[in-house]
Amino acid sequence: MRSLSLTCRILVSLMLSASTLFACTAVEGMDPIGDSDRTAWTYGFLSALIVLTSVGFYFLRKRKGRWALIVSIVLFIVHPAWLLSSRIGDCGTSKVEYSQWFTAILGLLLIYQTVRWIFPLRNQT
Fold this sequence. Notes:
By secondary structure, the chain is mostly helical. About 70% of the residues lie in helices and about 0% in strands.
């Protein structure tokens, strides 16, 4: 029972901290949904470049780091830029936020691959 209470508190605090709870109010002459779509697609295409670079590092490292490549490809396939809609009531704010998170995670995976390529483990025989 105590863990359920803690879980509920964590979920409520996460929901209240997200900016996606606010409704969409369009200002005349502006296109917030279109802007959100373009921003999310930009993050999606940046993610595509990161995944292509990750594939390149995979082959440069002589097929090492397969798990990072697989995770990168899966994250790219389920990227919010392709799967989420901007017309769910928040003018695409959640789509942009989740796209930022996915792109950041892909970037961290690429940094990991780069560091492992530059500084390989010394105890390998």
